[in-house]
Amino acid sequence: MGRTRTFIGIDIGDAIRGSAVALQKELTKISAGVKWTAPESMHITLLFLGEVDDRELHPVCKAVKAVAAGEAPFSLRVSGVGAFPNPRRPKVLWGGVTDGAEPLQRLYTALEEEMLELGCYRTEERGYTPHLTLGRINSPEDGVALVAELPKRMAWQGGRVAVGEVIVYSSEMDRDGPVYTVMGRAPLTGK
C-alpha cells in the first residue's frame, strides 16, 4: 500500500486567483527573491495531513463529508497582505481572509477533532490562521524590501468567492512545484 500527501482545503475561485496573480506581478518588481505560488495551486488550507496511508483516504473523505454537512455555505473575502512568522523575519507572504474567517475556524476545529481521532493528524502548535499563500521568500535579504511595502498593501482587495464545499486534495511534487489533485468533495449543507 502507498501513502499519499494529503491536505484539506477550500478553492478560491478565478476572481481571487486573478487578483492574486496581479499582486504577485507588482511585488515581483520589488523583489525577485520570492518563489511565487502558481495560480492553479492557490487555495486556502484547512488542515495539512501530510503522508496518509492509502487505506485511510476513504475514512478521511467520509469524515470530511460529515463535518462539511454541518456548516452552511458562506462567502469568503481575501484582502490585506502580511508575512509569516512575522514581518521582521518574513518567510511566507500571504493574503488575509476577512469575511469567512469564522466558518473556516469552525471547520478547522471540527476537522482537527475528526482527524486526530482517525490518527491522521498531529496538532500544530501555532494555531490556525486562515490565509492565502502568495509566495515563499528565499532569504531574509529578499524579504526586507518586500516587507517595507506591506503596510501600503493593507488595503489590497483580493475579491470574494461563494464557498460551497470542502475539498480533500493530494499533493505530488513535480519539478516545477506541487501538483494538486482533488480526491474528494464535501458539500457544505448545514443550515
Structure description:
With 191 residues, the protein is α+β, with helices and mostly antiparallel strands. It has one domain (3-187): Cyclic Phosphodiesterase, Chain: A. It contains four helices and nine strands. It has helices spanning 13-28, 57-68, 101-118, 140-149; strands spanning 3-11, 34-36, 43-53, 74-84, 92-97, 131-137, 157-163, 165-174, 177-187. Helix 2 packs antiparallel against helix 3 (101-118). Belongs to the 2H phosphoesterase superfamily. ThpR family.
Helix and strand pattern: EHEEHEEHEHEEE
Structural Rg? 17 Å
Task: Based on the coordinates given, report the CATH architecture.
Answer: Alpha-Beta Complex
Overall helicity: 25-40%
**How would a textbook summarize the main sheet?**
5 strands, antiparallel
- For this structure, the quaternary state is single chain
Mean pLDDT across every amino acid position: 92
Adjacency order of strands in the biggest sheet: 2-6-5-4-7
CATH third-level topology: Cyclic Phosphodiesterase, Chain: A
Strand segment tally: 9
What is the 3D form? globular
CATH level 4 superfamily: Cyclic phosphodiesterase
Q: Look at the helices and sheets and give the structural class.
A: alpha+beta
Give the amount of beta strand, in percent.
35-45%
Low-pLDDT runs of 5+ residues are none
List the helices and strands and how they pair.
Elements: E1 3-11, H1 13-28, E2 34-36, E3 43-53, H2 57-68, E4 74-84, E5 92-97, H3 101-118, E6 131-137, H4 140-149, E7 157-163, E8 165-174, E9 177-187
Helix pairs in contact: 2-3
Organism: Gemmata palustris
Motif (HXTX 1): 43-46
Catalytic activity: a 3'-end 2',3'-cyclophospho-ribonucleotide-RNA + H2O = a 3'-end 2'-phospho-ribonucleotide-RNA + H(+)
